[in-house]
């Protein structure tokens, strides 16, 4: 059905025009490799884009070397030189190359539309799948046919902010560089791990299907944007952190120096300017005594911002242990924290008086 929906000569003319006048790449920003029907011309166009993005010259020699370097996809390297020479004999003027590129792109979208519709028809026939799910999948599949070219669907994540305490929320300014269309989106840590959820939020806000890194590159991409995010906290989270700090210091008042791993149940190892603890022991005590019901992530969020170190190997009598290191000056409260400690102590005293009255 799609046999007549391609123009091999037009695809060849685009490659030839690039070889003769590489600056025409400026006119081809709306064209994607997926728009080429012929595998050879598609591969050569990808090579042209690679060279262009790296700022390297595009000529017969460089294009052949790039083709050879990326030819691990079953393509015939031996025929590449002939293809490149043939392409150089088929060129069009700079004023016509954008028109031909538009035609090639339109044919590519039509081919993909046919394949997508065929898959949708097959899914509709499968009565084992709920109809709502079938329709949702169909909408997503059709969204991927967005007429916006891949270059115009690129988005940048800017001005990242990490908000909150133990379970942070990340806010990013998402920008489409082609026209500076932008929006702010908020994502939880769980949502950040799901590229489909990120894509959905951007699509709902900007009304186009964004081009995002592949599944293989997604973890590295998320690590990069999260590590560049500025940490900030809501007033509620800051108040919660202050309470956590108060109760951590209270735990230290009950703790004792430990030489044996068994002593770490309610103790710490003192080395240099750090105290080393087993965080699970502190967590258990905080859970029993503190108003805030913490978890290890919340504890680490508070300690990390105050110079703590995680998973430090410390030698003990019965062998090494991996512990968390807390700077000694963590136990020296600021003026504000001293006032909070007094408030907490008063609250505790009131609780005791009330319980005595009830008895």
Strand and helix map with partners:
Elements: H1 8-20, H2 39-53, H3 60-69, H4 80-88, H5 94-125, H6 131-143, E1 156-163, E2 169-176, E3 181-188, H7 189-192, H8 195-206, H9 218-227, E4 230-232, H10 235-254, E5 256-257, E6 267-271, E7 274-277, H11 279-289, H12 296-304, E8 309-316, E9 319-327, H13 335-358
Parallel strand pairs: 1-4, 5-6
Antiparallel strand pairs: 1-2, 2-3, 6-7, 7-9, 8-9
Sheet with most strands: 5 strands, mixed
CATH fold group of the largest domain: DNAb Helicase, Chain A
How much helix is in the residues? 40-55%
Mean pLDDT: 80
CATH H level, superfamily name of the largest domain? DNAb Helicase, Chain A
CATH architecture group name of the largest domain: Orthogonal Bundle
Q: What's the end-to-end separation, in Å?
A: 86 Å
Strand content: 15-25%
Order of helices and strands: HHHHHHEEEHHHEHEEEHHEEH
Low-pLDDT windows of residues = 354-359
Shape: elongated
The spatial strand order of the largest sheet comes to: 5-6-7-9-8
CATH class of the largest domain: Mainly Alpha
Structural class: alpha+beta
Number of domains: 3
